Amino acid sequence: MAFYKVAVIGAGQLARMMTPAAEALDIELRVLAQSQGECATKVICNTAIGSPKSVSEVAQICDGADVLTFEHEHIGSDVLSHFGKKMSVQPSASALLYAQDKLALRRKLTELGLPQPAWKACHNNEDVAQFLSDHGPEIVIKTPTGGYDGKGVKVIRAAEEIADWWQDREVLLAEEKVPFTMEVAALLARRPSGASESWPLVQTIQANGVCHTVIAPAPRITEAVQEEAKKVSQTIAKELGVTGVLAVEMFVSEENGKQRVLVNELAMRPHNSGHWTMDGANISQFEQHLRAVLDLPLQPVKTLAPFTVMVNILGTEDGQEPASRLAAVASKCPNAKVHLYGKDVKPGRKLGHVNVIGNDLKMIKAEAEEAVEILRGEKR
């Protein structure tokens, strides 16, 4: 019988990738899937089916568990609040609010005096037009809740472009379109008792609103900016009461030749920007997350090579399984570490990722990209 029991809301690839770490530490994972066949249910025996917004259905995985955590943010706040009165819930409902509600996050960052783009809560097209006048010619409009992987986000030049967004919403978030030179992510893990460990700042490269490539550590970033990003992420974790893994997505911009960071969004769970840690660090984000939510001592982070490159594997139109091309990858890209999620193939769907570590950034990036091209059937 496992000594620790961790209940996880969600049964996608993030829950699935917690499995090796849980096995190594003799932790029993229990997951709540919304439907049979989600990819974590293929490797985790203790699975229940239910809605993350239902107290009674989440309760299926909580009896006797040491902690309740989650692998996505689409959870009813009342659900976490309910179980927070009965057991350890990490992170708490009060912390998760800031990952679920972008307006709440902007207000909190303003209160804390942390760097972020100019923003405004807009209640009609006139508010949007005024913000455009102040911060145009282009601005970013976001739905305060519900958006992810590029959904619920639109760059506009005129208020009329989002006129239909008001049909079921009373407020939208307008943000300055930052002229950034790079997108980065600061990743850390924090225990309920307060101790934290950070991984190096990484560069994230997006394609069609979805993370495509991660480079660890972020190249061409000054030490001052690396320290600032680390300090900002640690402040956010402490002041918002975040526990477990926290990813703080940021923009890097330059003014008068000097770099600075601006906070974009948060994720309070293992994150795509941290998948490189599975092969490029002495401890993965998944093991550190389990340690953190159980309030166990965290392992000091060390990188295993000067650089690690992660490239996501997205589904293609042909519906071919990436696993059918593993032999070709192993032959042509011997340094590529392939991680497949066991998902049905759909165009644009995240099916896995490839990590390559080494000394020469240009060479390992080329090998990671070639491996993904082979797995997607774009190259033989």
From TrEMBL:
Pfam families: ATP-grasp, PurK_C, RS_preATP-grasp-like. PROSITE patterns: ATP_GRASP (PS50975). GO terms for cellular component: cytosol. One of its GO terms (molecular function) is metal ion binding. One of its GO terms (biological process) is 'de novo' IMP biosynthetic process. Residues 106-294 form the ATP-grasp domain. The keyword Ligase applies. It catalyses: 5-amino-1-(5-phospho-beta-D-ribosyl)imidazole + hydrogencarbonate + ATP = 5-carboxyamino-1-(5-phospho-D-ribosyl)imidazole + ADP + phosphate + 2 H(+). Pathway: Purine metabolism; IMP biosynthesis via de novo pathway; 5-amino-1-(5-phospho-D-ribosyl)imidazole-4-carboxylate from 5-amino-1-(5-phospho-D-ribosyl)imidazole (N5-CAIR route): step 1/2. It comes from the Bacteria. InterPro entries: ATP-grasp, ATP-grasp_carboxylate-amine, ATP_grasp_subdomain_1, PreATP-grasp_dom_sf, PurK, PurK_C, PurT/PurK_preATP-grasp, Rudment_hybrid_motif. Keywords: ATP-binding, Ligase, Nucleotide-binding, Purine biosynthesis. Its EC number is 6.3.4.18. ATP binds at K102, K142, E175, E176, K177, V178, E183, N264, E265. Belongs to the PurK/PurT family. HAMAP family: PurK. Homodimer. Catalyzes the ATP-dependent conversion of 5-aminoimidazole ribonucleotide (AIR) and HCO(3)- to N5-carboxyaminoimidazole ribonucleotide (N5-CAIR). This is N5-carboxyaminoimidazole ribonucleotide synthase. It comes from Boudabousia tangfeifanii.
